[in-house]
Design a protein that fits this description.
By secondary structure, the protein is α/β, with parallel strands linked by helices. It has two domains: 185 residues, inorganic pyrophosphatase (n-terminal core) (Alpha-Beta Complex), CATH 3.90.1640.10; 123 residues, Diaminopimelate Epimerase, Chain A, domain 1 (Roll), CATH 3.10.310.40. The protein has twelve helices and eleven strands. The protein has a six-stranded mixed β-sheet, with helices on both faces. A five-stranded parallel β-sheet has the order 2-1-3-4-5, with helices on one face. Helix 5 crosses helix 7 and helix 8 crosses helix 9.
C-alpha cells in the first residue's frame, strides 16, 4: 500500500487534509508529504496551540479549504473518523479518498484506499515510510516537523515503541539534527490565557474514585487538551475536559501511565462513546478526543460511566 500510494503521489497534485484542531503529528505527517510531493495542507478546523508553534517556526502554510477542481487526489492523514474533518466530513463518503492513519481502524471510512497501522505510535512514522518508498528524501524542515510529531504523539516517548525510537534516531542521524533542536521546534512559553484555562479547569473540577483510580471531569471554553493534561498532573488517573459552542461540543481526554499500563485505552473508550451518541471519537491509549453535537455535560457523564466499566473489566476479579 505504501509503495502504491508513493507511486500515485509522484504524479498530479494532492490535497493533504488533517483533522480539526490538528496536533503536531497531523501537521508533521501532512507537511512531510506536501513538501515532498505537490499539494496544499488543509486543516478545516485549524491547528492546536502546539501545531501553531511548529508551523510558525518552520514556516508551514496551512489552508482551511481547497479548490477540488485543481486537485487530482485527496489524502486524509491522522484522522480517526470523518466527523473530525468538520465541514469536509463528506470526504469520508468518497471511496476514492486515500486515508492514512494509526488509530484504531474505523468502519466509518468508506475508502478502499484505507491504510491504517495502529502499531505505529504516530502518523508521522507512516508518512516518513511513504516518502522513503517514493525514493525521495525529506527536506530538513520536514524532518523537523516529523520529529515534532513523533515527540508529541509519543508523549516524549512515554508511549513510544521500538519503531518510533528507531525512526526518530534515523531521521536525526541522516539530517544531523540534535535533540535540543528537535525539542525547540515544539517548545513555547505557556501564554496567560492557557494558564487561566488550566486554573479555571481546576476550579470546575469534579472527580470520583473508581477502585484505586481517580476519574476527573471539567468544563471550559478553550485549551481542552492542556487542561486535561494538567488535571492528570494534579493527580487524576483519567481526565475528561469538555467545551460547548452552541450545539457543538469537544472533549479532550488524558490518562496516567498507571492507567494505560493496566489496560485503559482512551481512544477505544471515546470511539465507543462517539458511536453511542452518533459523534466521532478516537485516539491513543493515553490521549484521545471526541467531538460532535450534543450536551457536553451529559456526554462527560457518559465518559465517566464508561471509564468505571472499563476499570472494573480490567480488575482481576472483573468487578
Amino acid at each position: 500500500m505504501k509503495s502504491a500510494l508513493a507511486k500515485s503521489l509522484l504524479t498530479g497534485t494532492s490535497a493533504f487534509v488533517i483533522h480539526g484542531n490538528a496536533d503536531p503529528d497531523a501537521l508533521g505527517s501532512a507537511y512531510a508529504l506536501s513538501s515532498t510531493f505537490c499539494g496544499p495542507i488543509i486543516a478545516p478546523g485549524g491547528l492546536d496551540r502546539n501545531s501553531k508553534v511548529v508551523a510558525e517556526k518552520l514556516k508551514i502554510e496551512v489552508q482551511d479549504d481547497f479548490d477540488e477542481v485543481n486537485i487530482d487526489r485527496v489524502v486524509i492523514l491522522d484522522t480517526s473518523g470523518p466527523e473530525q474533518l468538520g465541514k469536509l466530513k463528506y470526504l469520508g463518503e468518497d471511496e476514492s479518498m486515500f486515508i492514512i492513519d494509526h488509530h484504531t481502524r474505523n468502519s466509518a471510512w468508506r475508502s478502499k484506499n484505507y491504510y491504517c497501522d495502529d502499531k505505529k505510535s504516530s502518523c508521522c512514522e507512516i508518512a516518513y515510510e511513504v516518502v522513503k518508498a517514493s525514493g525521495k528524501e525529506l527536506s530538513r524542515n520536514a524532518a523537523l516537523a516529523v520529529l515534532a510529531g513523533i515527540l508529541t504523539d509519543t508523549g516524549h516517548f512515554h508511549y513510544g515503541n521500538v519503531h518510533s525510537l528507531e525512526t526518530f534516531a534515523s531521521i536525526m542521524k541522516h539530517h544531523e539534527i540534535g535533540m535540543s533542536e528537535a525539542l525547540q521546534t515544539i517548545e513555547s512559553r505557556t501564554d496567560l490565557s492557557e494558564k487561566i484555562s488550566q486554573l479555571k479547569g481546576a476550579q470546575r473540577l469534579r472527580f470520583i474514585r473508581a477502585e484505586k483510580f481517580i476519574i476527573a471531569t471539567s468544563f471550559g471554553s478553550a485549551f481542552e487538551a492542556s487542561v486535561s493534561k494538567s488535571l492528570v498532573n494534579l493527580g487524576a488517573d483519567m481526565a475528561f475536559v469538555g467545551s460547548q459552542r452552541g450545539s457543538h461540543f469537544r472533549i479532550s481526554a488524558r490518562a496516567s501511565q498507571e492507567a494505560v499500563d493496566m489496560g485503559i485505552h482512551l481512544g477505544k473508550l471515546l470511539e465507543g462513546v462517539g458511536k453511542e451518541t452518533s459523534n466521532g471519537g478516537g485516539g491513543h491509549p493515553g490521549a484521545a478526543g471526541l467531538s460532535g453535537e450534543g450536551d457536553v455535560r451529559r456526554i462527560l457523564d457518559l465518559c465517566v460511566h464508561r471509564s468505571k466499566k472499563a476499570i472494573r473489566s480490567l480488575l482481576p476479579d472483573g468487578k
